[in-house]
From TrEMBL:
<protein>
    <submittedName>
        <fullName>Uncharacterized protein</fullName>
    </submittedName>
</protein>
Amino acid sequence: MLVTSGAGVRHECGQAAKLRYLSTLSPSSMEHVACSFLREKLNAADVSSSGDAATASLSSGFGGHPIQVQAVDTSTSHVPQMLHSTMRAMKTALNLSTNQTIQAAQVIREASGNRKAIQPGLKEFLFSEGQSVAHFFAVEQLQFICKQPSGQVISIDRSAVFCCNVSEFLAYVCSLRGMAEMEHHLKLGIDGGGNSLKICISVTDSDGLPAQASMPGPSNRFLNSGVKKLFVLAIVEDVKECYENVKTLLSTMDISSFLFTLACDFKLANIICGIQSHASTHPCLYCEGKSPWTTPAPSRTLGSVRRLANEFQLAGGHQPAAKHFANCVQSPLLPGLDSTELIELVPPPELHIMLGIVNRLLDELNNRWGNDMAYKWAHGAGICRQQYHGGCLEGPACKKLLLKAGELWNILPAHLKMFAVALQDFNAIRLACFGQTLANDFALHIARFQTTCQFLQLNVTPKMHALFHHVPTFCSKSGKALGSFSEQTVESAHSDFEATWQRYRRPFNHPQYAANLLQAVVNYNSFHI
């Protein structure tokens, strides 16, 4: 239709008419118009932008702030490339095999739609990395002892993997972690769990705190004090945890060439130091005292144990007579001067002190309450005992019980409420000196807990004695909490190494057993640097 136009003649094509016309367009036509307009606006904005994504400002026409529309780059050319170090960290964190890591990389490439999403050469990198410490380790057939069901002790041959030169290996680790020679603390761990006797080592900062490695990057996301940075120095499977076997495994390496502290449970600590078990008359690792621990006793030193063990052997070496020699029956397997106190070499193991004391409190409460009431309450509260540890609470369950002591107090009969108080007192000790930070008043918390135990008329066990008398001495002298020397990392090594070993495992009589055990240790350690 023709419209007359001219001066003084009203025109029908105003803004409102244009908007009405646009509203009559089909959705696809409206998209075409909007797309063309936005492209123009974004192209203009892109010219004036300084490397940032182009943003177009659109006025609504009805007032208010303009709408900001930003262009999104849908190309794959800007997808960040995942580096070898990141894939290495993923492999270590998730305990993946090399093939599983390569498969994960393929999934990432497919999901991103970009073949370059992973740094090229990953397969070659992983195979090379997995052999980086191979020249430090060897495997040999060694003789260990085994106790038959009849009680007879026999010798058996076992393949043992060990580090050929620990000093050079540690220097290699420190150089790759960017740690100076005198700026690290070495924590040697020995344990017989997981069906194998292992000697492990952690290389941490000299202050003992679990700081990260100084070299930046994804592969260093793990704490130097954690299990993902721990190394297996030696391992042998299916042997008894005893003095002779530990001595044989330790003889494969020179541990006198470096300074370290030992992290292990009390049972193995006594074995290594040549002292009889906690069932003996003088069971304490740190002094020559005996129950009921009311008389001060001399501190144990390497020299005193060596002297008493030698006298015991000269007297015939009959086990019942060991109590006359402070139950020292073997020369300590640890190097050092005669004047070195054992507590300097083997700091009090905070995990096993907690396990022993918390389980003791729960068991005694259950006995006095009757009808397994304490066990039933604990089970109802989600605090479960592990049957393979003789029905004992493990670390997480112990902590849970300590944190729920207030709830327990609410339901306990009046004459048993002090057990809940004892648990609360011990939890205060855990927070004050069992972590990484030593509280100024830690000794007061220990004294308070000791008073509570006396009120409950509890017999003092060797672990309680260690807490009451030796933990304050060690923490005051070192100025550090027990967490810096904890054996927890060594305990975690069993399951962590098992994930690697299961990919290499062969039966004992298999011709590839020894070689595969060596390869498992090499691969595990290579990815823990």
